[in-house]
Structure formats: structure tokens, C-alpha cells
């Protein structure tokens, strides 16, 4: 120790740690519940990976690209050139198809690793439970897996595959193709007449600049849809409980405010007299120990009596510090050690004295 700084040496570390008995293998050994959750999670992930690979493979076989892998790059330089755009699409398609193969290749490797991990977890579970327990657990996992597979297949078929087929049937594969085929801006009620070449002409016709300057920029003046005021219903137990608690507190505050301003049951003179007594520094107002009465005493005599009682060494002892923190620590320790005590749970029945019998 130098300059009042304490530290352990390497010898102290070796001595202290060498005195430990036992090993901490239990810290790194998962419980049966953790192994079951791991197994269930891996099975679900394997189903997801398998369906994802099969779906990507079908996209590639039919020469189609899912929306998530379509390039967002646009042919801005020569968007009006048909040959340029066609070659641009071919390059984008090649990039997307190779990306599909890359994803499938690495998904296959990930699926193999996951399969091996799952088999290892399965062996650990079987070593900790009986065959009957394993069969029940396995049956439960299989039912959940079939349900999950059906749900994922439905999602991939309806929300992805069929949607992407509609894009190819309409010839709107990439976002810039869909936008280029949109109809021109039309004036309401024009039926093909008074078409606008771009948004700027539409804004000019609507006189948007003057609307903003006159602070009348709203949906009605622009002919747009009025903003919805619909509030969705929430079926969440947490939100409902929070709302109930807030409403209860608001009601409590309201009741307090009502009670606060009720008509008093004493006169103005009596109220003024009570306030003067409360703020009078020469007296002490205390409730009596019994009977519900109120006592009024001279402050100086009250303080003198307290000091005389506390000054009696036979009854009171002066302490160097507040002992409540040590007492709290002792009580906490007793409560924590109680479950491990051999006398925990025993009911103590006092025995009658000989004089009482």
C-alpha cells in the first residue's frame, strides 16, 4: 500500500481465488426450460429458412424478381430512349437474379448449421427428461410447426407471390415503370380535357401560392380529401389498465376540488381564530393520548419538559449516530435468511406457566 491507496497483489489474487471450493459449471449450464425454448425457436427458424429458400428458388426458375430485391436505380439520363431502358432493365434483372442465387447459397449454409444445433439441443433435452415427457413435448412442437408452416405459406402466396405476378402481368416491374405509366394530372370533371403536364401546372391552376399567402391552405380549398378524425379502437390490456388508472386519478382530483370548496361548517370569525392559533408561536397544540381531546400548552414549558425527560440518564442514553439504518439491515438479513433456517415454517405456541394452571 502506497500513499494511502489499497490494492490486491497477484499473490493475493491467487491466494483468494485458490481458496474457492467447487466449480461454476452451473452458471453455463442451461436449464430444461431454456433448452426447450431454444429448441422451439430453432425449429421455427428452420421452417422460415426452408420456405424462404423454396420461394426464392421458384422466383429464379420462372425468371421473376420479388419486390424486395428489385433495384431502385432509375434510368434518369435517357428515360425516353426505349432501347436504353430495355438494356437498363436487363442489367437490373441480372443483378437481382444473381442476388437471389447468393441468398439461397448462404441460406443453405445457415440451414445446415441450424440443423446441427437443433440436433445437439435435442440430445441435451432427452438426457434431462423421460421418454414420455419428450414425446409429449415433441408432439406439441410438431403441431405448432404445421400451423406455422401453413401460415407462412399463405402469406408468401397471397401477399408476395400473387402480388408480384400482378406486377409482371401489368408490365410494372420496377417502380420507375409504374410511375411512367401513371395517367397525367387531370382537372376535376375534365374527362380527359385540361390535362396538366406536371404538378407545377396543377398547383398553378389551383392557385396554391395565393392560398398559402391568404392562410387558407386546407384540404377543402384544394379539393383534396378531408383529414380523417377516426380514432381506432385498441384492445390492449396494458393500455386499458393505464387508461383506467388515469381516469381514476382524474376523478379523484375532481372530487378533491369539489370537497375543497364545500360550504364550511364554521363561521368566518371561528375560521380566523383557528388560523391565528395555528400560527401562534407561543403555544403548542397536540392531540391528547386518549379521549380524542386537543391539548394547548405553553411552548416554553413543553420544551422544558421534553428536555428534562431526555436528560434522565437512567431512562435515555445519548447515541453517536442514528441506529435506524443498522436496524433496517439486521431486519432485512433476518428476512432473507429465514427461508433457509431449520426453524422456518414452525409455529411457536407459548406453553402455560405452572401458576396459570
Automatic annotation (TrEMBL):
The answer to keyword Coiled coil applying to this record is: yes
Per the UniProt record, the source organism is: Ranitomeya imitator
**Keywords carried by this UniProt record:** Coiled coil
Source superkingdom: Eukaryota
- Coiled-coil residues are 97-158
Q: What is this protein called?
A: Uncharacterized protein
